[in-house]
């Protein structure tokens, strides 16, 4: 195995991701090398484990911090009138509420991507949620609100805009990290946005099972 990895080091492809996919559809030539595919699977698995562990560790730390705050508040406030307790919202109370919301009411950063039931489930619930809200605020919502007269078109283009921003961000990270310019990530995520729109259209409009671009 080690000999194979040494003799098959990954190389940056000369053609972009989109063109390699087209070549695969026309000629059957693989658009990704075996070693690169193995590296991608390994990277995704490590990212899933790291993000999941980081989130669980954060929740444990939040719980340790929260425990004394709850016991102190109970002892100090049990003799105060109810109105006074409601009006006196201290900094400690704000911290306590923030910790409770973070532990019990916040989505985990990573779900179970390999058990996704649809492209929407993958990107909205199962894959990591670090930038999910940011992409919605910068891409999806402005484009959707611009096409107020045609809500279906606005939602479809909004989804593509969110994925486009995600692709540009990933390409920027690749440039900074590896000093290699390409639009592979932009094309990759844009194709996934188009796939999501088509999936929702087929499942919702044709099969009657989807939720028709639900926000």
Describe this structure in words.
This protein is mainly alpha-helical. It folds into two domains: 33-110; 113-215, no CATH class. It is built from nine helices and no strands. α7 (132-146) packs across α8 and α8 (151-178) runs antiparallel to α9 (184-206).
Features:
215 residues; mainly alpha; 2 domains; 8943_t:CDS:1; O-acyltransferase activity; Wax_synthase_dom; transmembrane helix; membrane
Q: How much of the polypeptide forms β-strand, as a percent range?
A: under 5%
Number of strands: 0
Relative helix content: over 70%
Radius of gyration based on Cα positions: 23 Å
Write the H/E string, N to C.
HHHHHHHHH
Which blocks of ≥5 consecutive residues have pLDDT under 50?
none
User: Count the helices. How many?
Assistant: 9
Looking at the structure, what is the overall shape?
A: globular
First-last Cα distance: 46 Å
Could you say which structural class the secondary elements and strand pairing correspond to?
A: mainly alpha
The total tally of domains equals 2
Note the main sheet: none
Q: What value does the average pLDDT take? A: 80
InterPro entries: Wax_synthase, Wax_synthase_dom
GO biological process, one term: lipid metabolic process
Subcellular location: Membrane
Pathway: Secondary metabolite biosynthesis
């Amino acid at each position: 195995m080690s000999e194979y990895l040494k003799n098959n080091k990954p190389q940056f492809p000369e053609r972009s991701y989109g063109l390699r996919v087209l070549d695969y559809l026309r000629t059957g030539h693989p658009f990704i090398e075996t070693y690169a595919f193995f590296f991608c699977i390994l990277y995704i698995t490590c990212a899933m484990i790291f993000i999941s562990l980081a989130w669980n560790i954060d929740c444990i730390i939040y719980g340790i911090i929260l425990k004394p705050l709850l016991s102190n508040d109970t002892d100090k406030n049990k003799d105060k009138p109810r109105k006074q307790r409601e009006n006196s919202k201290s900094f400690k109370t704000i911290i306590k509420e923030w910790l409770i919301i973070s532990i019990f009411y916040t989505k985990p950063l990573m779900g179970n991507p390999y058990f996704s039931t649809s492209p929407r489930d993958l990107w909205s619930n199962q894959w990591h949620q670090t930038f999910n809200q940011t992409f919605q605020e910068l891409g999806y919502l402005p484009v959707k609100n611009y096409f107020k007269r045609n809500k279906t078109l606005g939602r479809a283009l909004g989804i593509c805009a969110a994925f486009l921003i995600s692709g540009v961000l990933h390409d920027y990270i690749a440039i900074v990290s590896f000093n290699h310019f390409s639009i592979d990530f932009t094309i990759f995520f844009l194709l996934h946005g188009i796939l999501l729109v088509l999936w929702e259209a087929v499942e919702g409009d044709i099969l009657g099972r989807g939720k028709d671009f639900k926000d």
